[in-house]
Amino acid sequence: MLEKVAKDYSAYFKLDVADGFQTVQDVIDNMITRLEELNSVVHMIKLKNSDCNTAVTTDINKYRAEITLLSKKIVTLNEVVITLQHNMDKIEKQVEKAESHFGVNNDSKLTSLLRPFLKRNRETPSVSDEIPNFETLSITSVMHNFEDNVS
C-alpha cells in the first residue's frame, strides 16, 4: 500500500517539461525566423544601396566635365549681366543729363515729342544756347566673355 500511495503522490510532482517549454520553443523559433527575414531584407537593402551609390558615383564622374563647364558658363553670364548693368547705369546717367539740359519732360512722351512742331511758329529755339560738354562714355565690352566659349 505504501508503494501505491507513493506512486499516487509522485504523479503530483511529475512535470512534463518538454510540453511546458514547447510554447517557449515555438516563440523562440518564430522570433528567429523573423530575425532571419529581417536580416535578409537588410542585406537586400544594402545591396540596392551599394548599387545606387555606384550608379550615382559613375553618373557624377561621367557628367563632371559638363557640370564644370555649365558652372563656368553661369559665372560668365553673371559677369556679363553685372557689366551690362554697369554700362546701362552709365548710359542712364548721361541720358538724364541730356534730358535735363534739353528740357525733356518724361511725363508725356508724345507731347514732348510733338512740342517742337506745335510751338514752332511761336518760339524759335535759340541757337546761342551752349551745348554742355558731355563726356565720352567708356562702355565695357562683354564679347571677350563669349569668344573663348564658342563650341
Written overview of the protein:
With 151 residues, the protein is mainly α. It has four helices and no strands. It has helices at residues 2-13, 17-102, 109-118, 144-147. The longest helix is centred in the middle third of the chain and has 86 residues, at 17-102. The N and C termini lie far apart (114 Å).
Chart the SSEs and their pairings.
Layout: H1 2-13, H2 17-102, H3 109-118, H4 144-147
Reading the helices and strands in chain order gives HHHH
Question: Structural class of the helices, strands and pairings?
Answer: mainly alpha
DSSP E strands, number? 0
Rg (C-alpha, Å): 47 Å
The CA-CA distance between the termini, in Å, is 114 Å
Point out poorly predicted stretches.
none
Q: Please, what is the average pLDDT?
A: 81
Per DSSP, the total helix count is 4
Large-scale geometry = rod-shaped
Summarize the main sheet: none
Taken as a percent bin, the fraction of beta residues is under 5%
Helix content: over 70%
